[in-house]
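Check these lines:
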Amino acid sequence: MRQWGLKQGLEEDKTPGTLGFTKVKLLPDGAALFTRGMGMSCVWDTERGFGERSWRYSCVINDMKVEKIFVEGGAITQNSGPDPFEVSDAETMLKYLQSVKK
């Protein structure tokens, strides 16, 4: 995740004892524990041979509470043929963040 963040141009937090970046927390979820906790687990085994994955979404979490969530297609779809990417994109999130900026 660190290398991906650096390639995206994120500013690394180099404070001793901290891990990550200054403005964004990247969450690796190889075992899908966070995904299941969010209720966003789906399986694409017959469609793509992926097994368990996270459905595509983006969200803002503040103080352990989901402030806003953008879920592709409005809901999780198991073995989805299409791979939607319309509302979980960066542009949608940036528009939302700019609209609530204080």
User: Anything to note?
Assistant: The radius of gyration is 15 Å. The CA atoms of residues 61 and 67 lie 6 Å apart.
